[in-house]
C-alpha cells in the first residue's frame, strides 16, 4: 500500500518538521510551498501554489502526488495581527481563504482521489481556541471555522474510510513581530513550565496515524495553558520571573 502524504506549508517552521518526520518514516511527501523557489525538505516532492487561489491550488497540489494520497496535513496558515478596533472584512476574507477554504477544497480533492485502506486528514488549529482572547481576531475566527470544518468533514467522510482530526498547539516558535526576549519569557508560561515544541506536533500526528478508530477529535498541546484563561495572546504578556 502506498504511503503518499501531503503537507501544506512544508517549507518552514512546523510544516517542515512534519514533512521531515514523515520522510524519515518512509513516506513520499508532497511538500506544498507558496512559491516556486521556496525550499522543501530533501527528498520531498515540491508543489508550489498560492492557497488563496482556491480550487486551482488544490488541483496543483493533488496533481503532484505520485499515487492517491493517504495522508493530508492542512498546516499552512495566514497569521496577521488585527483586533476588533481595526477589523476589516478584507483581512477576514484573506484569512478565511487560506485557513478554511483551502483546507476544505484540499479535503474534497483528497477524498475524490480515492485510495485504499485507512486515510487521514489532520488540520492544524491553535490551542488558543480552548481559551480564546480577542488578539489576532481574524486569525482566531478562521481557526474556529477550521475546527468546525474538522467536525463536519469527519462526519461527511467517515463512510469513505477517511478520518479527520486536528492538532491544536500553543506557541512553539518565535512569531513575526515578537522579540526573542519575549519568546523566551512566554514560551514556557504554562502550568507545566514546559514550552510546546514542533516535535510534540509530530508525535501527535504519529499518534493520530496509529489510531484507526479515532476521528472528529482535537488534540490540544498547550502544557495546560488553557487552564489559566489568559486575557491576551501570550506574546503580549510579560510573565514575572
Automatic annotation (TrEMBL):
Family affiliation: Belongs to the short-chain dehydrogenases/reductases (SDR) family.
Position of the signal peptide: none
InterPro entries tied to this protein: NAD(P)-bd_dom_sf, SDR_fam
UniProt keyword Transcription, yes or no: no
Alphabetically ordered keywords of this record: Oxidoreductase
Source species, domain of life: Bacteria
Name of the protein in its database record: SDR family oxidoreductase
Organism, as annotated: Sphingomonas kaistensis
UniProt feature coiled coil, ranges: none
Amino acid at each position: 500500500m502506498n504511503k503518499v502524504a501531503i503537507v501544506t506549508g512544508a517549507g518552514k517552521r512546523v510544516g517542515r518538521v512534519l514533512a521531515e518526520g514523515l520522510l524519515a518514516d518512509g513516506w513520499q511527501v508532497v511538500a506544498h510551498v507558496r512559491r516556486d523557489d521556496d525550499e522543501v525538505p530533501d527528498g520531498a516532492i515540491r508543489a508550489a501554489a498560492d492557497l488563496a487561489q482556491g480550487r486551482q491550488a488544490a488541483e496543483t497540489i493533488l496533481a503532484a502526488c505520485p499515487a492517491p494520497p493517504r495522508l493530508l496535513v492542512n498546516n499552512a496558515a495566514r497569521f496577521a495581527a488585527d483586533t476588533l478596533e481595526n477589523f476589516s472584512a478584507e483581512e477576514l476574507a484573506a484569512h478565511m481563504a487560506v485557513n478554511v477554504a483551502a483546507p476544505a477544497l484540499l479535503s474534497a480533492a483528497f477524498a475524490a482521489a480515492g485510495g485504499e485502506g485507512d486515510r487521514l486528514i489532520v488540520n492544524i488549529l491553535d490551542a488558543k481556541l480552548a481559551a480564546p482572547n480577542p488578539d489576532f481576531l481574524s486569525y482566531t475566527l478562521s481557526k474556529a471555522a477550521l475546527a468546525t470544518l474538522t467536525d463536519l468533514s469527519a462526519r461527511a467522510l467517515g463512510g469513505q474510510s477517511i478520518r479527520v482530526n486536528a492538532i491544536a498547539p500553543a506557541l512553539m516558535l518565535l512569531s513575526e513581530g515578537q522579540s526573542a526576549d519575549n519568546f523566551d519569557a512566554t514560551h514556557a508560561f504554562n502550568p507545566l513550565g514546559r514550552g510546546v515544541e514542533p516535535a510534540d506536533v509530530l508525535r501527535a500526528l504519529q499518534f493520530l496515524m496509529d489510531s484507526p478508530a479515532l476521528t472528529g477529535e482535537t488534540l490540544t498541546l498547550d502544557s495546560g495553558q488553557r487552564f489559566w484563561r489568559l486575557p491576551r495572546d501570550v506574546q503580549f504578556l510579560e510573565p514575572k520571573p
